[in-house]
Specification:
Radius of gyration: 16 Å
Largest sheet: 6 strands, antiparallel
Strand content: 35-45%
Shape: globular
CATH class: Mainly Beta
Structural class: mainly beta
CATH superfamily: Jelly Rolls
Bound molecules: 6-phosphogluconic acid, nickel (II) ion
Number of helices: 2
CATH architecture: Sandwich
Helix content: under 10%
CATH topology: Jelly Rolls
Number of strands: 15
Number of domains: 1
C-alpha cells in the first residue's frame, strides 16, 4: 500500500501531478482496429499521429489499490470511423468508473452479445460493470478527456477485442455519431 495522497489534474494538458507513467498511442499502434485498412495505412505511413495519450497516477496496479488514469483522445477519424482507444476486457472481472472531464465522446461496451453506447461529456459518470469490454471514442472536434478509476488487480486483455470486436463501430454522421454493425464494410 502507499500513503494517502492527492493528485492534481492539469486541465490544460490532461496530465496529473504527481504522475506515474504517461503512455502515447500512435496510429501505428492501432493495427487491425479500424474497418478501413487502406485509410489506416495511409495515416500510419503519413504523419503517424498520436491518437490518444494516457497519464497514470502513481497509485500502483496492485490488489486492493484503486489506480486512476486520464485519457486524452485527439479528434479525428479514419475512413469515417472516429478516433478511439484499443479497448479491452479486465481478465479479473471487476467494475470501473469513467468521469468525463472535457470534450465530447462516448463509451462503447460489449459483453460478447449486446453492444451498449453511453454518450460522455464533462460531468458524466460512465459505469462499466464487470465482464463488459470497453472502448472510448472521441465524437467531437476537440480533445475528449476522461478520468478512469479501476481495481488494481483487474488486468488488461486486448486480445479479446481483436477476437470478438465491439458489436458496433462509431462513424461520423451528418449530426449524431452513427452506430453501425461491427462487421460492416467501409462505406
Ligand atoms: C481502463 C484504463 C484506461 C484505459 C485507457 C486506454 O479502462 O482500464 O484505466 O485508462 O486503459 O483509456 O484505453 P486502452 O487501454 O483500451 O488502450
Ligand atoms: Ni478498463
Amino acid at each position: 500500500p502507499i500513503d494517502p495522497m492527492s493528485v492534481t489534474f492539469r486541465s490544460a494538458t490532461g496530465g496529473m501531478s504527481p504522475s506515474g507513467p504517461v503512455l502515447s498511442r500512435r496510429m501505428s499502434d492501432l493495427e487491425g482496429l479500424f474497418a478501413d485498412t487502406a485509410a489506416w495505412q495511409e495515416a500510419r505511413d503519413g504523419a503517424d499521429p498520436v491518437v490518444y495519450e494516457v497519464a497514470s497516477s502513481p497509485v500502483p496496479e496492485a490488489p486492493g489499490e484503486l489506480p486512476q488514469s486520464i485519457t486524452t483522445i485527439h479528434p479525428g477519424a479514419v475512413g469515417g470511423e472516429f478516433h478511439m482507444t484499443k479497448g479491452h476486457q479486465h481478465p479479473n472481472p471487476q467494475g470501473e468508473i469513467y468521469f468525463g472531464l472535457s470534450g465530447t465522446g462516448g463509451l462503447l461496451l460489449f459483453d460478447g452479445t449486446t453492444p451498449k453506447w453511453i454518450p460522455m461529456s464533462p460531468g458524466v459518470i460512465g459505469y462499466i460493470p464487470p465482464g463488459w469490454a470497453h472502448r472510448s471514442v472521441n465524437t467531437g472536434d476537440e480533445p475528449y478527456r476522461f478520468l478512469a478509476v479501476y481495481p488494481g488487480d483487474a488486468g488488461h486483455d486486448y486480445g479479446w477485442v481483436l477476437e470478438h470486436g465491439m458489436g458496433w463501430r462509431v462513424r461520423r454522421g451528418a449530426g449524431e455519431p452513427q452506430l453501425v454493425p461491427f462487421q460492416s464494410e467501409p462505406v
